[in-house]
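Box 3.1 — From sequence to structure: Cytochrome-c peroxidase
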Amino acid sequence: MKNQLVTLCLAIFILTSCSNSSDENYEDIADYPFIEAEFGSSIDLENLANYANQTIPPYIIKDNSLGNSITDKGATLGRVLFYDKNLSSNNTISCSSCHIQANAFSDTNIASTGVNGTTGRHSMRLINTRFATETRFFWDERALNLETQTTMPIKDHGEMGFSGENGDLAFSDLITKLSSIGYYKELFKFVYGSEEITEVKIQSALAQFIRSIQSFDSKYDAGRILAANDGQPFTNFTPQENQGKNLFLSPPVFDANGIRTSGGLGCAGCHRAPEFDIDPNTLNNGIIGKISGTGIDITNTRAPSLRDLVKLDGTPNGPMMHTGVITTLQTAIGHYGTINLAPGNTNLDPRLTPGGVGQQLNLTATEVNAVIAFLRTLSGSDVYTNPKWSNPFN
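Predicted structure (token representation):
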């Protein structure tokens, strides 16, 4: 009930804010000289980039926006906040430092660099975050929603340094800092009708920008739009890609010893087509290590969409899993091929333990290569280069 009330209050605030952000609430565009001076042609207030009305395929139906609908104005502000190093205590780190456009908004480093050290988990890709049933964020789902998540790294001592602890400045000091910057006075007035900066406004704008980052120009999408459902062969796929798709979608059949005797790999049981989002009820996948330190971490139960795991040429967009321990699609598939029941892992997803034992998929090289071929069809190209998701300070 408490979580529902928080979400409701956030939605009410956002709706109220949106009602105050119409064209009637600001004067002439010429009244925003700091925006022009800082961003030049990368932000044109009279011709904003299209964030609110992007084309979404009809088969994509999941949406976790929770009342914070994307607006061109809000996402424009969110873009500036996302790339601005002023959001870190020493002006060296921005959200984009760990979520890099060229890497599907992830990081090629296992642990990303913060103002006081490195991140405790690998930086998750930010592709199609909107198109999911799951509303919680971070690998361990500790953020109630994306809005809440957006300012948690800013408040983290190691990441962006406005924690209010360990000698850090507080988040209120960041508000004071941003309030003294000319282009933020103008942007918040442009979006909300007032120069006042609040955490909720920051969260709303950042979440709108992040949810606007979408990828639907893949080979998979070109085939799916022509098919009645995912189970049909896609006419634009090779036989290998269609085989991989069937293996991905079809559940396995196991014997009493947890050995697959027929069927597919069952990947779609957790990574659900066509969004390829993570099932909210998923528990951990058997990888329970830590990036640094000793012991195990059984709390990692979330995952990003499987879209854009790799670039079109097959180059990985960075290591996979919360530990960054897996660096190739072949290794990722191999991990699920033989699941080991690690001592102390009380949170392993039961779908990986048929009959109470770790699954053995008995994969052939042909099957592995087919699934890899299919996973590569989930990558597009626009998301890596589209200017509306790029650094406005450049």
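Summary of the box: Residues 309 and 375 are 8 Å apart (CA to CA).
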